[in-house]
Specification:
Layout (H helix, E strand, L loop, with lengths): L1 H28 L4 H6 L10 H11 L5 H13 L13 H36 L3 H8 L1 H7 L2 H15 L10 H31 L3 H8 L4 H38 L5 H10 L3 H29 L2 H4 L9
Length: 319
């Protein structure tokens, strides 16, 4: 188990380093100049004092060669210091810390809804003995996956806010203001969970040990929940870990549609202004959340199925 955990920790560190490096290179290749934007010149530096431009470049280290900048910023990032935001002048950690609670609240609510709705749909579809109802329920997840997130959000706003006036359409208005964004974000995620879990349950229910349990007189509910669900949940657990990153990414769209102040809107603004320190701080934080969730999922595998650790820690693939 210690070897298994050490391997997963090493992989997590590699993912964080790769995310930081890729974000640094992509931002460097983007057209434009963040220092000129901060100085108020946009792409044209003619109207700004060259001495001020040079001073700002030196302050943020943009006057150094790219490899030197990379090593410098990476060394600071390893100490938890991402510098100051180019566009706002505040420490990156403060900007992220102010925006973080709203985004975490949204992602946590959406993930909980996705697991509950997707898991419930998969259980209902595989439990029913009526063929037409099973086919109907199994046809819903592909529909949920194919619906664009922004379109679903706009439709929910139109129906439940503008017409029915049941829920607020925009802003960070407490619990009621969280419902529509969380439901919108949970629809595609829950659909994926339902697809994977339903397919895994159908396969598991045909396993010989399940047939043996039926022959011994075990009821449908006992077979479903006690015998089949535990083994069938492993692929779905893998998908949930991966989908956390998707939820973080989709929060950019959702927070824009619902005008919520959070990490998504901060990221969109930072990319627009090429705020390299802020974008890198957000990327590293998002990657950290992603790898932590997946690390927890990886470490939970041996608890659900001890054969995984005995087999050398090979990860269970949803495929």
């Amino acid at each position: 188990m210690r070897r298994y955990a050490a391997l997963r920790l090493a992989q997590a560190a590699g993912v964080l380093w790769a995310a930081y490096t890729v974000s640094f290179l992509v931002l460097d290749l983007l057209p434009g100049d963040p220092v000129s934007a901060m100085a108020g010149a946009g792409a044209d530096q003619a109207g700004v004092d060259p001495a001020r431009i040079a001073r700002l470049r030196a302050e943020y280290g943009f006057d150094e060669p790219i490899p030197v900048q990379y090593v410098h910023y990476l060394g600071r990032a390893l100490r938890g210091d991402f510098g100051d935001s180019v566009s706002g002048g505040r420490p990156v950690t403060s900007v992220i810390g102010d925006a973080l609670p709203s985004t975490l609240q949204l992602v946590a609510a959406a993930l909980a809804l996705a697991v509950l709705l997707g898991g419930g749909l998969a259980l209902a579809a595989t439990y029913t003995s009526r063929r037409w109802l099973r086919q109907l329920l199994l046809s819903l997840p592909p529909l949920g996956v194919s619906v664009p997130t922004f379109w679903a959000g706009l439709m929910l706003v139109e129906i439940l806010s503008f017409r029915a006036r049941l829920l607020p359409a925009f802003g960070n208005g407490g619990l009621r203001g969280l419902i529509l964004p969380a439901v919108t974000l949970a629809i595609p995620t829950g659909a994926v969970v339902a697809q994977v879990l339903a397919k895994s349950l159908l396969t598991t229910l045909d396993e010989p040990y399940v047939q043996t349990a039926r022959a011994k007189g075990a009821g449908r509910a006992r077979i479903h929940l006690r015998h089949a669900l535990r083994n069938a949940s492993l692929p779905a657990l893998t998908v949930v870990g991966v989908l956390v990153g998707q939820l973080m990414a989709n929060s950019v769209v959702i927070e824009t549609v619902f005008s919520r102040n959070g990490l998504g809107r901060v990221t969109a603004g930072a990319v627009t202004t090429q705020d390299i320190p802020l974008v890198q701080g957000v990327v590293v934080f998002g990657s950290l959340v992603f790898v932590l969730v997946n690390l927890i999922v990886d470490l939970a595998y041996p608890l659900l199925d001890p054969r995984i650790s005995a087999a050398g820690g090979r990860r269970w693939s949803p495929a």
